[in-house]
Each structure stands twice: as structure tokens, then as C-alpha cells.
């Protein structure tokens, strides 16, 4: 009985070593470079859109609002076409961090659960991914604001 347990443990260890040899090693430098380039290009495109709005005569607050609206729309639109998901596979965090990634995180679950109906599918699942991010983002901003208020004076 003891001998069978040892053999089983040895086989498990051999299998784990075999699996570790076969798992592809991530290329961290390449992934970081892609994320940097794609995220930077999204931001450059956002700056370009902002410059267009500024040249149209909008003030700074209006430019920021209009640029954010256009970027969210484009992120949602490209997600609907399936383009943004392909971009995300290559760019990783470079496509998630900008505001376009927020649009993607809302539209993707909504599209996935559309077959369940507009109420229990689209509406109920829309914020599955973005909801926790919003909750913790708002919560941490309230905490930081309170700390600043009480400790900053």
C-alpha cells in the first residue's frame, strides 16, 4: 500500500515536470512593448480627437467631454464588430487601461448575454465586469477624499 502511494506521488511529480516543460513561456518584454505601443497609440488618437474639437472652438471642459464620448463610442463600436477583442488579445493591458477598455468591458458581456433577452441578458449582465471596478473605484475615491479632508487640514 505504501509503495503504491509513493509510485503515485512520483508519477504525479513526473507529470507536473512534464507539463511545466510544455507550457509556453510568456514573453514579458514583448507583451509589455505591445501594451505600451497600443495604449500609447490609443492615447495619441484621443489627443488627435481632442485637438479637432479644440480647433472647432470648444473650451477645455467641452473638449474633454466630447473626446471621452467619442472614445467610448469607438471602443463600444469596435467591440461590436469584434475588432477590439482581437486588439485586446495582442495588446493586453494596453487596450484595457484607456477609456476604450471601459467601453469594451461593458459591451462584451452585454453582447454575450443578448440571447437571454434585453432585461435579464443585456441589462443584467452589462456591468458584470465593469461593476466591481466602478464600486471599488468610487469607494476608494471616497476614502481618499475623506483622508484628505481630515488629514490635509
Automatic annotation (TrEMBL):
Record key words, sorted: Membrane, Transmembrane, Transmembrane helix
Transmembrane segments: 32-53, 65-84, 91-107, 127-151
Claim: Plastid is one of the keywords in the record: no
Keyword Transmembrane annotated: yes
One Pfam family in the UniProt entry: SpoVAC_SpoVAEB
PANTHER family membership: STAGE V SPORULATION PROTEIN AC, STAGE V SPORULATION PROTEIN AC-RELATED
Name of protein: SpoVA protein
Species of the source: Thermotalea metallivorans
Amino acid at each position: 500500500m505504501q509503495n503504491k502511494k509513493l509510485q503515485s506521488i512520483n508519477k504525479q511529480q513526473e507529470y507536473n515536470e512534464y507539463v511545466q516543460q510544455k507550457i509556453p513561456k510568456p514573453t514579458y518584454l514583448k507583451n509589455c512593448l505591445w501594451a505600451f505601443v497600443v495604449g500609447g497609440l490609443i492615447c495619441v488618437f484621443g489627443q488627435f480627437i481632442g485637438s479637432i474639437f479644440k480647433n472647432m472652438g470648444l473650451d477645455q471642459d467641452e473638449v474633454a467631454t466630447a473626446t471621452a464620448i467619442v472614445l467610448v463610442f469607438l471602443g463600444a463600436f469596435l467591440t461590436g464588430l469584434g475588432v477590439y477583442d482581437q486588439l485586446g488579445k495582442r495588446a493586453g493591458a494596453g487596450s484595457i487601461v484607456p477609456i476604450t477598455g471601459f467601453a469594451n468591458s461593458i459591451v462584451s458581456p452585454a453582447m454575450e448575454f443578448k440571447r437571454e433577452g434585453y432585461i435579464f441578458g443585456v441589462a443584467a449582465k452589462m456591468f458584470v465586469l465593469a461593476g466591481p471596478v466602478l464600486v471599488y473605484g468610487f469607494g476608494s475615491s471616497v476614502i481618499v477624499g475623506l483622508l484628505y479632508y481630515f488629514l490635509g487640514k
